[in-house]
Design a protein that fits this description.
alpha+beta; RNA-binding; 27% helix; 579 residues
Amino acid sequence: MRMSQMFGRTLREAPGDVELISHRLMLRAAMIRPLGAGIFSLLPLGWRVVRKVEQIIREEMDAIGGQELLMPVVHPADIWRETGRYDQVGPEMARFKDRGDRDMVLAMTHEEVVTDLARSEIDSYRQLPRIVYHLQTKFRDEPRARGGLIRVREFTMKDSYSLDRDEDGLETAYRAHWRAYDRIFRRCGLRFIVVGADVGMMGGSESREFMAFSPNGEDTILICPSGDYADNREVATFRRDSPVDEAPLPMEEIETPSTPTIESLARFLDVPLARTAKAVFFKGDSGRFIFAVIRGDLDVNETKLRQASGELGLTPATAEEIRAIGAEPGYGSPVGVRDAFVVADESIRDSPNLVAGANRSGYHLRNVNAGRDYEVDTFADIASAESGSPCPVCGTPMETERAIEVGNIFKLGMRYSAALGATYLDAEGENHPIVMGSYGIGSGRTAATVVEQCHDEKGIRWPITIAPYEVSLLWLGSADDVDTVAAGDKLYHELTAAGIEVLYDDRTDRAGVKFNDAELIGNPIRLSVSSRTLANGQAELRPRGDSESTFVPLDEVVPTVQSLIADLRKPLSGEPVDD
RNA sequence: CGGGGUGUGGCGCAGUCGGUAGCGCGCGGCGUUUGGGACGCUGAGGUCGGAGGUUCGAGUCCUCUCACCCCGACCA
C-alpha cells in the first residue's frame, strides 16, 4: 500500500478528552473513527488488524472442528420470547417494530437463533456433536460505552456454540475451546490468564474468562502467587479464618455516639474490626429488601450476594427504604428488623459475640449472635476477596491484577435447548435436549487490548501476527532525488512480489514526519532508503522498538526481511512460551 | 440511570467587563528546504452544538434541550 494513496490520515494530536491509550493511539494512527457513543468505523489500517485477528480465530476454530456459518443481526422478538429473555434482558437490547408492527430485536448474542437452527437441523444422536461459529455484529446498548474499542455498543464477536449429546460431550467441546482460545490469544501476542467467573445473564453451570492484563482493565482478578488459583473478583473465594470458639454472652445495648462507620465504631470501642458485624442494604429487582450482614473487616461482594439472594439485580437501598424495615442507616443490624431477606456471610456464623448496630442512632449492641438474636434467611459466601486475602487452595496471600476480558467460555447445558425444544433421539429412540456450550471473543476489543499491552511513547508496537503490515518502507530525502525514490519503488515491488506486506511511505514529507508516522502505526519492521544508505548500496533495517539499525545490501533485503519476519513470528505460533 | 466535565474552522485550544471571533497544527498556491513532526509569502475555511429568552447589542448572561467525554451499577 502506498501511503500517498491511503484513505485516512494520522493525527498529530488526539481529541483532548480521550483517556485510554488504545483509544488515543488507534485514533491517531488512522485506525478508528467515532460515529457516535460506542460506535466506530474501522479505517483501512484498523480493519486490516481486526481482519487478521479474525483470521487467527477462524483458523483455530476450524482446527477444533468448528464450522463457520452466519446468523442474522435482526431477529423476530418471538424467538427471544420463547426463552424468556425478551422480558429478562433490559434496555441493553435494542427493540423495534417492522412495518407489519411485529416486534423485532437487534442481536446481542445468538443462543436463540443457533438453538432454533439446531432444532430444525438435528434429529439424531448421529448428528452430534457439532460446533458452529460465526463472526457477526452484535448490538448491546451499554449503559456506558467507554475507552474506544474496549467497550462499544456495536461490535463484532466471534461466537461459537457446541451441540452435544451429554455432559461428557460438552466437557470435550469446552476443553477444545479453552485450548483454541489459549492459542488465539497467544498468537495475538497477548499476556493473559484464564479465570473462573460469574455466569451472568447467560445462565449456565461453568464459565471461564480470558483476561488480558492491563492497568486500564475493568475487571479485577485475584491471583495466588504460587500459581494454583486465579478468579475474577466477582466470584473469587479465600481461605476463611477458623471459627471463634467462644460461648455466647448476653446481648447488651451500649451508647456509641457518632460512630456511623465500622471504623469509627471499632476505634470508639477499641475492638478489632473482626469483632463487629456490618450491615449492607440493597433493594432487589424483585422488590425484596436484601439485608446483608458480614464481619466488619470484610466487604460484601455484590455478585455473590446476587447469587445468594437469587436476585437478578441489586441497587443500594435508600435511607427511607432502610428505615421502612426498622433499621437505622449507620447503626443497622438485623436485630428486630422486618420485611427483609437476611443474607449473612459465613464469617457471621463463625463469629459469636459481635458488636452490631442497635437500629437506633448512637447505639450499638454487644454480643450479638446470629440465630439467637435474629433470624438469618440464608448463610452464604458473600465476602469480597481483596489483595492479601489468603488463597483458598494454599493460604498464600493473593495479589490483584486489573484485566480486560477478551473472551469467555460457558457451559450452557440444556437451558436453551429445553426452552426451544431442540432435542435429538438417542440410540434407544428416546428424546433428549441437546447439551450446549457458548463461547465468545470480541475481535475489535482483542485488537484494542493488544494496543493497551503493546505500545511505547512513540506509538503502537504490533505483534507481527496482527500488524496492519509487516513492513513500513520509507524513502528519505527530496522527491527530486530520483535515485532514492526509484530505490524505494524497486524495494516496494520486490518485497510485495515476495509476498511481504508493505506499507510504503512514498509521500513527499520530510524524514521526521515519516519516522513518526511509522512508529505511530507500529508495523514491526521499518526499512528506509536515502541517498546516504544508497551510497553504500544499502537499506536501513530497524525492528520497531529497537534503538539500533542494521544496514542491508539492497539485493539482500528481501531474504533478510523474510528471515526476520520468520523470527518475529516464532514466539507467536500459539504454542506456550516461557516468559 | 446517578455524579462530574466539555461543546468556538478538519484537529488542539484562547476569547477579559456583553460591543460584531482569534492562535497553533492541518489544508490550497508560490518559493526555499530535505535523516527525526521545516521556513517565508499567500489563500480557503466558523449560522460559536441546538432552541427560546434578557439586551440597543449575546461565543459571553438566563432557561430548556441535544451530543460527546470521564467516574460508578453491566459485559466480548
